[in-house]
Amino acid sequence: xxxxxxxxxxxxxxxxxxxxxxxxxxxxxxxxxxxxxxxxxxxxxxxxxxxxxxxxxxxxxxxxxxxxxxxxxxxxxxxxxxxxxxxxxxxxxxxxxxxxxxxxxxxxxxxxxxxxxxxxxxxxxxxxxxxxxxxxxxxxxxxxxxxxxxxxxxxxxxxxxxxxxxxxxxxxxxxxxxxxxxxxxxxxxxxxxxxxxxxxxxxxxxxxxxxxxxxxxxxxxxxxxxxxx
Length: 229
Description:
Blueprint: H1 15-18, E1 67-75, E2 86-90, E3 116-120, E4 126-132, E5 137-138, E6 146-147, E7 150-156, E8 164-169, H2 180-183, H3 188-192, E9 197-198, E10 209-212, E11 215-216
Parallel strand pairs: 1-10, 1-11
Antiparallel strand pairs: 1-4, 2-3, 2-7, 5-6, 7-8, 9-10
């Protein structure tokens, strides 16, 4: 796909260890009936609640940081909405630290923020999350390397094999110009599609700032995903 980075992108040192080196294995469902599970439904709509989409209400107290609303539409190549799409996000907290045991960044954890959420798109293909704007964090890729603020997104169809993963960035972040992961997307227009836009219509007075980020799943204008990594 035009704009997709090479799987082994030297400035992003981790790609040298993470990309596949062998051809993908095709599964024969007739020869292996259990492989059918790989293309079966992996969730039900009733499994996802409104609380899953509001990362600021998942604990007893209020999380620290700038409250934001992130919303947009999931579309196919012709602009038609993708309904019933499971959308998952995960992110660092306002200090730039993930609630994960392997994160050793010397920034505080927030006992009231886990940084994971999910929702299902409506009939117009729209998703919406309330969360905290993540902070930048060091990542050791090169000297004085810092990742810009970003939110990881995962999109499921009706099967594990249909999962796509990408990242959303914030407008005006000075670290974007120095990020090898984003720079690996060589087409400027493809990089631009990974940056959200501030949208006052999504902002709530005295409550949260709003960001709009639409995602196109396929076609020449598709949003870049970490496919094959």
